[in-house]
Amino acid sequence: MAKQPDKKEWARLLELLGSPLCRNRLRGIPEVVLYGAGIRGREACQQLLAKGIRVRCFLDRKAVAIGRIGNIPCLRVTSRPARMLAQQGIPAVLAVSNYQTNLEPLIRKLRAVGFQTICTYGELHEILSIPSVFWMGSRKNVQKNKKRILQAFHLLNDKKSRTVFCDHIGLRLRFESGSLARPSRGDQYAPSDLSFPNPRRFVDGGAFDGDTTRFFLRKKSALEAVAAFEPDLLNFRKLTRSLAFQERNIQEIVLIPAGLGEKTASVRFLSGFGAGSRF
Fold first, then answer.
1. Sign of CA dihedral 260, 263, 266, 270
2. ∠ at Cα 168 (114, 58), nearest 5°?
């Protein structure tokens, strides 16, 4: 049975779910600066331009190598032109949606050069409704599912999980990227309070390059069998190389170049984007 959340935890979640939606700071803005010249940034740029919102420049740590994207310059955050744009009061938008990127240092860096309004990717997604970013969803959907969210919260047994849950509700509803706790990658697949059978047999759906299996091997876990599914062929090659010489550590390894779904079928798949490849 799950441990009951304390009153402060309940109060925070209820306050998040019950408050009116905050205003999206990008609504009505005529021009922006985009931080991130990768896939997300370029995709966002095209849609912003289509909506009549001018993109003054990209900001990126690889700005020197990139130079320009179309007719839009790519600058380093600390460059003089970037500082001048900050002084003009133009909003900076974090066009970054990468689980490996810690946004807080980026926000501090942008503030240090003078950007006063720094908008999150959630705000950008909301005004553009970028179809490929399926996991973002609408803030209204969060409010509509209040009862289910409260039920899910009630099932969480430890304070850390409940805190992360509330942080992400805050991120969804208020774009509060600064409230997210620093992730603990050392135990993300095997927290100390979660027991596993030993030896383990597991199915890895979306195995990427075998990172989950390698994690358990680093933890000296006894793996009896692993069935790994990965539909992106570039990722699958990396997965194959990663587990090619693990026979002495894993009794049975099955690698399948396909995805997992509710039925056997052929579907369209966007490949070649590493961890970002998707149906």
1. negative
2. 35
